Amino acid sequence: AFFWLVSLLLASLIWFVSVHLSDREDAKLQYGLLVFGAAVSVLLQEVFRFAYFKLLKKADEGLAMISEDGQSPISLRQMAYVSGLSFGIISGVFSVINILADSIGPGIVGIHGDSPYYFITSAFLTMALVLLHTFWGVIFFDACEKRRYWCLGLVVASHLLTSGLVSFTIW
C-alpha cells in the first residue's frame, strides 16, 4: 500500500504542477490535463509495482539464505497476491473516501435526475477495482519472474483502459 501511496503522491505533484503552469481558463486544456494526470498515475503505479517486485525479490533471496533448508518461507505467488491486494485495498479506500465525501455535501443524490443507485454502483465499482488490482499484481509478478514482457504490456494496457473507462463514466 505504501508504494501505491507514493505513486499517487508523485502523480498528484505532476498534475498539480502542470495545472498551475497552464492556462486555468481553458476548460479543454484542463480536461486534457486531468486525463494526462490519470494516465501518469497509472504508469507510476505500474513502475512502483515493478519496484516493489524487485524489493520483494531481494527480500526473498535474503530469506532463503538465512533459512535452514535454503527455501524461502513465502512463495512469490503469495507475495504477488498480497501486493496486488494491498494496491487494490488502498485504491478502494481512496475511492470510498471520495464517495463518502460526496454523501455529506448539500442535497441528496438522486433528487435531480441522478441515479438513486449511485452509492451501491460506486461500491461495486470499487470492489471490482480491488479485484482487478489483485489480478494485475499476480499477473505482473508472474510476468516479471518469467520475463513475459507481453504480459507486462497487457497489465499496463488493461490498467490504462480500465482507468480511462472509469473516468469516462464519471465525467
From TrEMBL:
Subcellular location: Membrane
Principal location class: membrane
Region forming the signal peptide: 1-19
InterPro entries, alphabetized: Aph-1 (IPR009294)
GO BP annotations listed: Notch signaling pathway; protein processing
Alphabetical UniProt keywords: Membrane, Notch signaling pathway, Signal, Transmembrane, Transmembrane helix
One term under GO cellular component: gamma-secretase complex
Membrane topology: Multi-pass membrane protein
Transmembrane segments: 31-48, 79-97, 117-142, 149-170
Family membership noted in the UniProt record: Belongs to the APH-1 family.
Quaternary assembly: Component of the gamma-secretase complex.
Record's function text: Potential subunit of the gamma-secretase complex, an endoprotease complex that catalyzes the intramembrane cleavage of integral proteins such as Notch receptors.
Descriptive protein name: Gamma-secretase subunit APH-1
Lineage: Eukaryota, Metazoa, Chordata, Craniata, Vertebrata
